[in-house]
Amino acid sequence: MSKITPITVAYGDGIGPEIMQAVMHILMKAEAKIRVETIEVGEQLYKKHYTSGIAPDTWESIERTKVLLKSPITTPQGGGYKSLNVTMRKTLGLYANVRPSISYHPFVATQHPDLDLVIVRENEEDLYAGIEYRHTHNMRESMKLISRTGCEKIVRYAFEYAVKNNRKKVTCFSKDNIMKFSDGIFHQVFNEIAKEYPKITNEHYIVDIGTARLATKPEMFDVIVTSNLFGDIISDVTAEISGSVGLAGSANIGENFALFEAIHGSAPDIAGKNIANPSGLLNGAIMMLVHIGQGEVATIIENAWKKTLEDGVHTSDIYNPKISTKKVGTKEFAEEVVKRLGQKPSKLRVASYASVAAESDKKTTYKIDVSEKKTLVGVDIFVDMNVNSADSVAAKVNPIDGGKLVLKTISSKGLKLWPRDDSFFMNSDHWCCRFMPDSGEITHEDITDLLAKLAAAKVDFIKVENLYNFDDKAGYSLAQGE
Q1: The pTM is what?
Q2: Is the pLDDT of residue 45 over 90?
Q3: pLDDT, mean over the chain
Q4: FRET partner for 321 with CA separation of 20 to 30 A, picked from 104, 263, 363, 467?
């Protein structure tokens, strides 16, 4: 007999409370052996001026249970509010986001009846680090951060997932033809780790053509591993073409904690109308039950849910007069699933989960390799000047004595504009001045001396990026046209 497992439950906002009540009703009727601790997060906390959407003492429940079942929440636009989803994933070390997408043809309308794939998305890095700056009146910046260790963790997780779940192929999506450092290391690590799993087929797609193939021929794919932003986008695309975003659940897995949810948002426009589909959150709860070792209960619930779909009992988002037999609301759908507990589908694949708790992720130590020789070779200094040509910037900056550092290029938006033979005008106030020595080594003191001279000349420098070589290989990109 499974032991009673404590879990933390967040009802969220928007449609969150409605769908969570429906899911908890099904869990209780299926006799899931859980003890619930309820926490308040999201909109109500934002209104109390908790900019992260969660109160400090709320973390105590999650620390105790290690498992969180969470309904969707709304993050207010603007005003410095941070996404609670991102905060939780990073704070709890939930580096792997797992989103299965399956076609329930012919009971849920889809053009892709053979769709059955899983997207494994890196969950802590990339643009979702949320580090942004406003540099000038005109220019904003979002930082894309990708670490080798982060890539190693998520890629290895994807291959391990494929092995444990009898999947045959892992596909990597990246954009390393453009972002050669950040996406480049993701693709490189994928190739390295793929060699450790010779029985699993591996392949790589540039994300744009990969997404096009995913949208038109999803049966080509089995497990897809990708970075944070791309994974967020393609998992919604995949869920939508499967029949409905409202059906997809999601697991966020780390070494010590796990969070389960629906992939859709809080949909405040339909909140309180008893029309929301609780299936996405229910499928997240099924993933939770498997994770905590209650596979038998997960099996009963999933089969009852599939039988409900087969019987044509559908909420309005998937209701189709040609397929459906009965349109029901959120509460009524939950009751229909409860009525079918113990039944199995006759056409959809029958679920069968082992009642074995998920093993903690291997405590692999991902060490940072510091063996490469790191050499300071220059500096990019971004300046705010509201002029229409790089020649005007050079006229101001080039006469300044940079000591060992010499102005080599000026670019804007990644395009080299000085020196060049032709005149090129650009409406910009954001210019990158690259300084490098003609010969010899430089120090941080050389850079700070240059900055002091720029400040004395009333040059508004807004960002400084040191340029390094690693084992004599450039650790910086060239400007376009350089």
Answers
A1: 0.90
A2: no
A3: 92
A4: 263
**Contacts for 470 with CB less than 8 Å, ≥ 6 apart:** 372, 373, 374, 375
Q: What does R_g of the chain's alpha carbons equal in angstroms?
A: 26
Could you please report the per-residue DSSP string of 330-391? HHHHHHHHHHTTT---SSSPPP-----PPPPPP---------S-EEEEEEEEEE---EEEHH
How far is 158 from 221, CA to CA, in rounded Å?
Answer: 13
Please give the share of the chain, as a percent, with pLDDT higher than 90.
80
Structure confidence at residue 1 (pLDDT): 47
Residues near 426 by beta carbon (within 8 Å), at least 6 away in sequence = 388, 389, 390, 412, 413, 415, 417
Neighbours of 255 (CB within 10 A): 16
User: In the structure encoding, which two tokens stand for residue 132, read together?
Assistant: 């942004």
Dist. CA 421–CA 417, nearest whole Å: 10
Rounded Cα distance, 245 and 241, in Å: 8
Q: What is the arrangement of strands in the sheet containing 461-470, beginning at the earlier edge strand?
A: 415-418, 405-412, 431-437, 374-383, 461-470, 473-474
DSSP state of 427: E
3-state helix, strand, coil in the chain (%, to 5): 35, 25, 40
Contact between 137 and 386 (Cβ < 8 Å): yes
What does the pLDDT look like over 142-155, one tens digit per residue?
Answer: 999 999 999 999 99
pLDDT digits (tens, 9 = 90+) for 170-196: 999 999 999 999 999 999 999 999 999
Angle at 298 between CA 293 and CA 299, to 5 degrees: 115
CA dihedral angle for residue 371, residue 172, residue 159, residue 253, rounded to 10 degrees? 90
Strands 313-314 and 326-327: parallel
- The Cα–Cα gap between 476 and 472 comes to 12
Closest of 266, 345, 361 to residue 102, by C-alpha: 345
Residue 96: per-residue pLDDT: 96
